[in-house]
Write a structure and sequence with these properties.
- This protein is α/β, with parallel strands linked by helices.
- Helices cover 63% and strands 15% of the residues.
- The protein contains eleven helices and six strands.
- Strands 1-2-3 form a three-stranded mixed β-sheet, covered by helices on one side. A three-stranded mixed β-sheet has the order 4-5-6, with helices on one face.
- It is elongated, with a radius of gyration of 29 Å.
- It starts with a helix and ends with a strand.
Length: 388
């Protein structure tokens, strides 16, 4: 069913990196969400009113808020499709993250309202009349919401959309919430104990949890997160496949919204090579990366001495010492300033983000260790963090 809808309403559906195709996916998801949630609201509201069950009516209004959230998601995808302009030179892709965050906030607010309504029901209980109609409505609602969760998860995974994944999480929360309401009604029917308000509190807990998880997932890309390690590894391998590139460092991936990635890195090249030939190769790599990873790439050339035996011997010793101190440390931009009795070894040392608080101490320890083993060397070290 999901594949049928995608093929029917999303032209060129396999080109998921295209902003226009992503917008069509968002439109499809939003339209399906609006239609299904409005239907659920109407039937649940009627069933809840007939049974006098606050938990059912609260669940109905939860679906109404979901319909509103689907409208926001749809608008978000449409706005994210807008091209770059002078005020927003990197495009509007992050609007999609903002729409997902708005959906999360709506979910949290609805959870609070459900909790307040449930507490009031406990303090002022009313008779709940369980009918076959209300039970059937809840069963069908659970099945429909389960399908909606699957539908949005498939679309979210396909286009890597946190907004749609947030909607899928909300739908799964609704499944659990509606199941709790149904079990509460059945319990009341057989025991004549009115637990409608307590079930309402349980429902609100599920809704609040879903809102929190969805908000957390949408805030992360807005604040900036480390790129996928597999993507980083693939990019480094892609650049290193060139015979002219001797090493890669300072790789940074900037995310300006789905399908809008900017990449910058330093490529180490032989200082004895022909500058024009190397520049031409770097241009070729940039263009090839843009095509392969659907990104905008900028590569800086770092010339290094590859045939100086003294430099290579010093570099090998530094590599050994740093590996013994911490196997995860890396270094780059290595050069030697030779003197008559002493030589300066200048390089950048890359440590984890957590270790940056001890950067000065790490710098002193590494320099002391190198000088201790090789008094003829003085290490001039710049400690920096990794962004991948």
């Amino acid at each position: 069913m999901v594949q049928f809808l995608v093929k029917r309403f999303v032209p060129d559906y396999e080109n998921v990196t295209s902003p226009k195709v992503r917008s069509r996916y968002g439109t499809l998801g939003g339209a399906v969400g609006i239609l299904c949630n409005i239907v659920l609201f109407l039937v649940k509201f009627l069933a809840g009113a007939a049974a006098g069950a606050v938990s059912v009516m609260a669940d109905a209004f939860n679906n109404l808020s979901d319909a509103g959230s689907s409208v926001v998601t749809l608008i978000g995808f449409k706005m994210a499709e807008k091209p770059a302009n002078p005020d927003h030179p990197f495009g509007h892709g992050r609007i999609e993250y903002l729409s997902g965050l708005f959906v999360s906030v709506v979910i949290l607010l609805m959870g609070v309202e459900l909790f307040k309504t449930a507490v009031d029901k406990i303090l002022h209980p009313t008779t709940v009349e369980v009918t076959l109609f209300s039970v059937c409505v809840l069963v069908l609602a659970i099945l429909l919401k389960f399908w909606m969760a699957h539908f949005n998860r498939v679309l979210g995974d396909r286009i890597s959309s946190e907004a749609m994944k947030a909607t899928a999480a909300d739908s799964m929360s609704d499944c659990i919430a509606t199941a709790a309401v149904l079990l509460g009604m059945i319990f009341t029917y057989f025991t004549h104990w009115n637990i409608d308000g307590y079930v309402g509190i349980l429902v609100s807990g599920f809704v609040l949890k879903a809102g929190y998880e969805a908000a957390k997932d949408t805030i992360k890309p807005l604040l900036g997160t480390a790129p996928d390690p597999e993507l980083v590894s693939a990019m480094e391998k892609f650049v290193m496949d060139s015979d002219m590139v001797l090493g890669v460092h300072d790789l940074i991936v900037h995310d300006y919204g789905p399908g809008r990635i900017m990449v910058s890195l330093h490529a180490e090249v032989d200082s004895n090579g022909n500058v024009m030939d190397i520049h031409e190769e770097i241009d070729r790599i940039e263009a090839a990366m843009n095509q392969e990873f659907m990104c905008m790439t900028t590569i800086h050339m770092d010339p290094i001495a590859s045939d100086d035996e003294a430099v290579n011997a010093a570099k090998a010793e530094v590599k050994r010492i740093l590996h013994e101190m911490n196997p995860d440390w890396k270094f780059h931009d290595f050069r030697m300033v030779k003197g008559q009795k002493n030589s300066n070894l200048v390089f950048d040392l890359v440590v984890s983000t957590e270790q940056m608080k001890d950067a000065l101490q790490i710098q002193k320890q590494a320099a002391a260790r190198i000088h201790e083993e090789h008094p003829e060397y003085t290490a001039v070290i710049k400690v920096e963090q990794s962004f991948v």
